[in-house]
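[job 4471] stage=fold_predict status=RUNNING
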Amino acid sequence: MPLWQEQPWALRYILKLDAPYFFDIRATRGKKKLSEARPGQEQEIEAVAQGVRTYVVENAFLEREEVFASLLLEFNRSGELVSRHSSRAPLFGHLAQDDELVLASGNGTQDFVFGLGQWQTASLGEGSGTLPALCSKEDEQRYRPNFRPSSVLGGFGCREWRAYLENRKLPYIDVTSYELEDDRSAKPDRKGRYPQRILATIRPVIGWGRFDLPAKPVIGRHGKSWFCLHDCPGGDFPGFIPNIASWAARSGWPVPKPPKRMPLFPDPAS
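[job 4471] inference complete, writing structure tokens
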């Protein structure tokens, strides 16, 4: 049986969002594993991919979280990784027989293979049908019934990314994870309960763009600060957006608003 499923490569880019600390851990761990020279074992892409971009959020949440980071992987139509990397051999994207999306230096069982995520084609919950999406292991937890966003796992995941990407009425991909927390700057009620406030963060997620779809800006809010993370309009570099209303108005777009719930496409309760 061939290692790869035979189909054209469709992804223009893959964008990983996470804390800089975890990118560093995976890079260190991945380089060590790669140096052990055991072809055939799945490797971590951070071992060879370069160009992690760090974003600083000033005074976010009383300085509890001040940074997040992104790693951009770009491809040509042949599936070759064209963004900066340290692999001596060219790396090409493939869909493995187990639906794992990988980068590989060849077509043999002894070639180095770097995991990117799971290409899921199962139903995306309430009325969403079958929508292929590049998902992480964490997404399995995100869409379980009664899931609540946390400081580690946000409400925005691969299913939300796909919905933004495919919906032509949405001009951008807003990766913000929204959750409720106690507003301890306010007075509690007689039972000691604090009023709730919306917490906006950029949490770990894997996203992608396709050659057959128009480019969409990837944006997100962390604390009170908005950022453009990729495919920014007007050729702007990724970075801080001083005024989200002005930024949106410049292109005739609506200002992004929190959804009524997150995640948007949970698995149905059994």
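[job 4471] summary: Residues 11-250 form one domain.
[job 4471] exit 0
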